[in-house]
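May I ask you for just one protein sequence along with its backbone structure tokens in two labelled lines?

_____
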Amino acid sequence: MSWTRIIRPSAVACVLSLSLSLVQAAGADVAKDIGSDANPAIVHALPDAITIDGDPAKWAGVAALPAPFSRKATGMLKLAWREDGIYGLLQAQDAKITVDAFNPWVRDCLELWLETDHARSYEMTDHAYQLVLAPNPDAGAGRAIVVPANGHIVADKVHAVWKPQAGGYLIEFFVPATEIKLVMKDGAKIGMNYSVDDKGVSIEEFFTDKDMDSGFCSPLRWGVITLKP
């Protein structure tokens, strides 16, 4: 059996697409939108260390992020932080789970983008990352599929577990700060976007469309989160 890996468009194509989108969006005022650079979404610190085991009960006191692009005050993703890195819980609505372990973004997954130096770059840099996390029904509940699609993240260093739940699935995960060149501290700003995909089609996005306006490869298009106690 042969596998064909989908290749994202080149950086040059990304920049050309972005230039066109900026012209089309000229005059648009998004500065007041939640998740913008002027009004970043807040991610709070966890009060205590947690174990990544797929139990959502420990997240009961953590508010889900808004998904302003999808016009949702509360989305499916929760993020939190400690000095050692970023923690997350996705509770996805999905009637039938389908996956592609090699190209997870064409099936059911979470795509998470981070720009840890908050440079608002036009294109991907050494501080920009795309991490794709997906359920793994063939193997059963347990280790989730982890694919670093962009950036130098070692997949085995990302701790992610999944399990089915009523109406879909959940993925709980931890991304070490050392893997994303980030000093976790109060007030830090991080470029961020996410997409919850169902059979490759986004059903919820944080700040921009991943498939339009260079959303998957231009941190300038992403939203912003800020770390708070």
Remarks:
- The radius of gyration is 17 Å.
- Residues 11-24 form the longest helix (14 residues).
- Residues 1-13, 15-31 have pLDDT under 50 and may be disordered.
- The first strand starts at residue 41 and ends at 44.
